[in-house]
Write a structure and sequence with these properties.
Length: 310
């Protein structure tokens, strides 16, 4: 689906029938308004009374709001996806410059894995890339083995522990893990990248759960999810990367997403962006910025508790 340069799909919305009553209809033609009173009558074939009609309308309006929230979530996800695509080209150019300056070569798949592990942040990518080039010494080519040695899977596993603690709403554990990550020289921007991807994925899964045609609901059996829901979800190539993991792991991520409201997940994205801006443009210690971000995600605090000192 082509969303255009703004990565936003126009939503026509979902209309809701109005209950019987008297309404004023206004039509504007060439700057001139024409109004007329309109009376909506109850369907004579309907057996329901007005209380039934109002209850049905309230339900439809709730569904309409959920539909709009889901559409907004999808647009946000697509916007961030476009940002990542644009940024990857910039990062690849920086990697190529370092390779040329240090007279090294590297297979494209190694660069892709580097971005995956470090995150899409120029500072972190440049730092890890220079470490790689120095690590191989006189060798002219950087291999996957070199990448695993310098930017190993253990770092990804440690970052996964952080997202798991946040997903489980274990604030104290999340703060401890975040502190340990930075003590082990994992760049704060890499943590930001991990949290952004985590929030984006949960937002996507929350939006997909609200789409009844996929049949995903909290508490469903893993076998049912794998045999019925996952094949339906995978028919849309747009979610290919997000659904590419082990079926059990994907199912658990859907359950994690169900533990947060759509409003909460949507609020995470600007919080993460604000933290990133603080890391790049304020004298606040990175550890303090990360701690404040995690506190804001799991225990919302009033704005202004951490001033952006510039």
């Amino acid at each position: 689906v082509d969303y255009g340069p703004e990565r936003v799909r126009e939503q026509n919305g979902m209309s809701v029938r109005q209950p019987p009553g008297t309404y004023t209809v206004t039509l504007e033609v060439n700057g001139e308004e024409f109004s007329r009173e309109l009376r909506v009558l109850k369907d004579p074939n309907s057996t329901g009374d007005m209380s039934d009609i109002r209850a049905q309308q309230a339900l439809m309006e709730e569904i309409q709001r959920d539909h709009a929230d889901a559409a907004d979530a999808v647009n946000r996800i697509e916007w961030f996806r476009r940002q990542l695509q644009d940024l990857q080209a910039v990062l690849q150019d920086q990697v190529n410059q370092i390779l040329k300056r240090m007279n090294k070569t590297m297979a494209p798949q190694v660069a892709a894995q580097l971005f995956e592990r470090v995150g899409f942040h120029p500072v972190a990518v440049v730092m890890e890339m220079e470490k790689l080039a120095l690590y191989v010494g006189e060798a002219s080519r950087i291999t996957v083995e070199d990448l695993n040695a310098v930017v190993g899977r253990t770092r990804q596993e440690a970052l996964f522990e952080l997202t798991q603690a946040i997903g489980d709403k274990k604030l104290d554990q999340a703060l401890i893990i975040a502190s340990r990550l930075q003590e082990n020289s994992i760049h704060a921007l890499a943590i930001i990248a991990t949290l952004r991807n985590f929030a984006r994925k949960l937002l996507l899964f929350s939006a997909l759960q609200s789409q009844k045609e996929y049949g995903v609901f909290p508490g469903m059996a893993p076998q049912v999810f794998q045999q019925q829901c996952l094949p339906a979800l995978k028919k849309n190539d747009r979610w290919k990367n997000e659904l590419s993991g082990h079926p059990y792991a994907v199912n658990m991520q859907f359950k994690t997403a169900a533990g947060f409201s759509m409003t909460t997940l949507q609020s995470w994205l600007p919080l993460i962006l604000e933290a990133e801006m603080r890391l790049k443009g304020s004298p606040i210690a990175p550890e303090t910025v990360i701690q404040h971000l995690i506190l804001s995600m799991l225990r919302p605090v009033s704005k202004g508790n951490l001033q952006n000192q510039r």
